[in-house]
Amino acid sequence: MNGNRERQEGDDRERRRIKSTAAMRDLMLKYYMEAKAAEGTEKKIAWITSGGPVEPLICFDVIPVYPENHGAMCGAAHMNVELCEVAEGMGFSRDLCSYARGDIGSAVTKGGPIGGLPRPDFLVCCNNICNTVLKWYEELSRFFGVPLYIYDTPFVRGPLPDHTRDFAVRQMEEYIAFLERMTGKEFDEHRFLDVAVKSFAAISLWAQILSCNTARPAPMTCFDAFILMAPIVTLRGTQEVVDFYEGLLREMRQRVEEGIGILPAERRRLLWDNIPIWYEMRNLGRLFMELETCLVADTYTNAWTFEGVDPERPLQSMAEAYTEVYLNINLERMSDRQVSLAEKFQVDGMVMHSNRSCKPYSLGQYDLAREFTRRTGLPVLIIEADHTDSRWYHRTEVEGRIRDFVENLL
Amino acid sequence: MEEELVNQCVRLWEEPLSHMARIREQGGRPVAYFCSYAPEEILHAAGLTPVRLLGSMRTITHADAHLQAYCCSVARTDLDMALAGELSFLEGAVFVQTCDTMMRLSDIWRRNTGFPFHGDLVLPVRMGEEISLPFMVREVGRFRRQVEEYLGSRLEDEALWESIRVYNRNRALAEEVYRLRSENPGLVDGLSAAAVLTAGFWMRKEEHNALLERFLEAAREGVPEGEPAAVQLLVTGSVCTTPDLYRLLRELGADVVDDDLCSGHRYFDCPVEDEGSPEEALAARLWRRVNCPSKHQSLEDRATRLVTQVKESGAEGVIFYLQSFCEPHLFDVPYLKRKLQEEAGVPSLVLETELQSFSRGQLRTRLQAFIETIAGV
Fold it and tell me: Least CB-CB distance to B132: which of A92, A167, A384?
């Protein structure tokens, strides 16, 4: 009897498992291996911030490398604390962003699950996600002795002002000229258009994939989305990424049709705010499964669904899209996005990760939480952590608070 | 006379709130600002009195409902004062986009306080490069129109130029005070120079100019009182909320010969030049002046400037006087410390403070050890 039940549970788990994850692992493995192999060859490597305009790099055949994605990987592998400690030993304060500390530590020691990132030929820093990246990339630029391009996106309050748009567009042209200098190649407008179209296609596919979670039961949790977003962050603009997300969308649609949920049972649905707690994904995933609660949507992966990349005027529309990302707008506009996600995905509440490594994402959360409850009538739980420095995380306390919160949702 | 003036300024530094309230009682219109990039001349020309909030030593009662504990205590205590109703004399506040904390604080402040005026100035991070100047000019112009809309009347160019002249005079006088201090530390000590400058954050600049003129006149006529302090230091960081650091140093036989603080030397660096329209001139100054570490001019500008300042002032050591959680400053610490050691040959000490848990005793112990090392005791 027992053996039968176990077999059934095993079959059920297999049925619920997202099969495209394997394809994503292959894609990312290949990407990292190619990037590592390119070190010291003719191929150019650029380190770029997660919110930075990557399409021009793809267009110039530059390999983009994302320290933040690597930081997430180090965090998930429980290896970021030791890297942070290296940076702290160099005099970097423990209060600085743990992505930055871990990255500096890894640059110095080549530590981490893949033996560090390949050395950059130049750096691209876009401050649309935070001001931290400016200081971080200045340090990288001094450390490696390589050029730094700063794509400067002034903060947007209300509608995008004309002078901010003009500044962004002028820099897009300047960025292209910078890449011509770095690579010795001429800008190929046709190629760029092709990359822009592919990037737009991948972004649209990603938006549709996330939208599949409006179904009940939801075919994935946002923890799956955090993993599955790696290609859209790193390689949008390539055909492989379009192919991968087409496959993932097919799988998600099929799951919805067949009523296959990611959890064995889904009684409640929540919205997640902020960057994942990378080192705790497994434990938190287990806890929410046990609580029959699905994190159906989040503000983080949805940040990569920006609209408005217009193939008719790719440079301009791209400049606008990169300036108006989720973290570069005022609290009222952020609140609008949270409320619209809550309505679209029909959630029962929101969990906010107050992330001591990320001030632009976290400062204002207390006000956003109250505003969310005022507008939707739904409760909010705020938990304190850090995206990759587990020394700031108190598991028993956080898990207890999550249990209390979910139990009170009924 | 000189000593009395300095004492008055120190008292003002310790108790700025009552003085700001008096401005209102006497018919003035105080508008708060936090950051040395605030375009004060525009507020001044509009008949408003820019007054600076530098945080305050206090227990936080209200702000914790809006800001996490991992945010700097200047932001936390300033917001706390506003929410506790202690700043009711203000007509409004002006926020400048420098660090991530100030960027978000603006929204939080606007949503939770009820002051009639709320101004924002958005800055690029790329300063001093041709590409960002047109943006700066248009943004300063937008700020001017925001003030005009609030006033319901046009700000005339002539009024702006007049305010620019007043502020430029203020910068020149402050520069003079600093020069006198570094050339003749026995005549003007660090506390005096900092106090007469800091007092100016809480009065109309015309009044402050008269004060600085009186001070300079008296100081030049004075005779050095004994020997200057044995150990001369340079302080770098953001703001000095209270005179404590200067007092402690004096007690320990050291003094501040120059600084790189945004409530000090960075505040009055660089005059507004007579170039184009008032907003072009104002924008160009903000864009060209010495950088806050939240901004970028080049990879080396901060170190180069700091090393030069140390060499020119003859400072024998550098104190990093920082707010905990201040990312822009904290990021630069390892690199600046290294450069100071290698290129200026001076040691440095990092002091992190939090205003809600300020410990004079701890500060004293660490300063004493540092000063003793330099003095070779």
Answer: A167
Q: Which tens digits make up the pLDDT trace of A2-22?
A: 678 888 888 889 999 999 999
Nearest by CB to residue A135, choosing from B66, B132, B331, is: B331
Interface A:B, Cβ pairs < 8 A: 133
State ipTM. 0.96
Q: Which B residues 16-45 touch A at CB under 8 Å? A: none
Domain ranges of chain A: 2-407
Q: Which of B202, B172, B207, B174 is nearest to B54 (CA)?
A: B202
B121-177 per-position pLDDT tens digit: 999 999 999 999 999 999 999 999 999 999 999 999 999 999 999 999 999 999 999
Torsion of CA B31, B36, B37, B41, to 10 degrees: 50
| Average confidence score pLDDT of chain A | 95
User: Which of B122, B294, B352 lies at the smallest CB-CB distance from A154?
Assistant: B122
- Gap between the Cα atoms of B44 and B274, Å rounded: 18
For residue B343, what is the DSSP state? I
Print burial letters for A270-294: b (CB count within 10 Å at least 16), e (below 16).
bbbbbbbbbbbbeebbebbbebebb
Which chain B residues are Cβ-neighbours of A138 within 8 angstroms?
296, 299, 331
Q: Tokens 């500096």, residue? A: A104
Percent of chain B with pLDDT over 70: 99
Dihedral sign for Cα atoms in the order A122, A128, A131, A132: negative
- Residue A306: predicted pLDDT: 65
**Interface residue of A93, A94, A392 to substitute, partner B, most B CBs within 10 Å:** A93
